[in-house]
Fold this sequence. Notes:
This protein has 181 residues and is an alpha/beta fold. The chain has 5 helices and 6 strands. The chain has a 4-stranded mixed β-sheet with strand order 3-2-1-4, with helices on one face. A two-stranded parallel ribbon has the order 5-6.
Amino acid sequence: MMKAAKQSYHFKTMPSPVGELTLVASDKGLAAILWENDAPDRVRLGELVENKDHPLLLEAERQLGDYFAGKLQRFTVKLDFTVGTDFQRSVWHALTTIPFGETRSYAQIAEQIGNPTAVRAVGAANGKNPISIIAPCHRVIGSNGKLTGFAGGLEAKALLLGIEGSGHAGKGLGQGELALS
């Protein structure tokens, strides 16, 4: 049996209202958007090679810039969810169906993927979402309506929801709780 060729990843950084973001692309699409202070093992990718002129990364940067400026509500850049388990990928794909300016609870996502008892597992998968912002994990909140754990921090989550005009921006900040129900 032949071993698959090792995946190579290209990256570039960009400034944003939520700190410096690292955009990562594979040959298949955008593979990650990493936070400035991201935990090193939150998203496990292969070797990253800087490529400031990679067409997909330039397009992702343009779309994110338009999003932050309030000019874009729907991303069209191709995504590559090859990292992660089948369950995690099902959660990440469900995130992409949450409309701009709306939120869902972890329980609603669990129901959507056909596994209504997997609320905590949905929360864990949400926390490992490699393509933050574009696969909008910031749109997932606790069933009690409070903002809950977010890799970019709760202030960034509130800012993103504020950009989208969600009524949840700022709710629950400073609570320090991780309510996954």
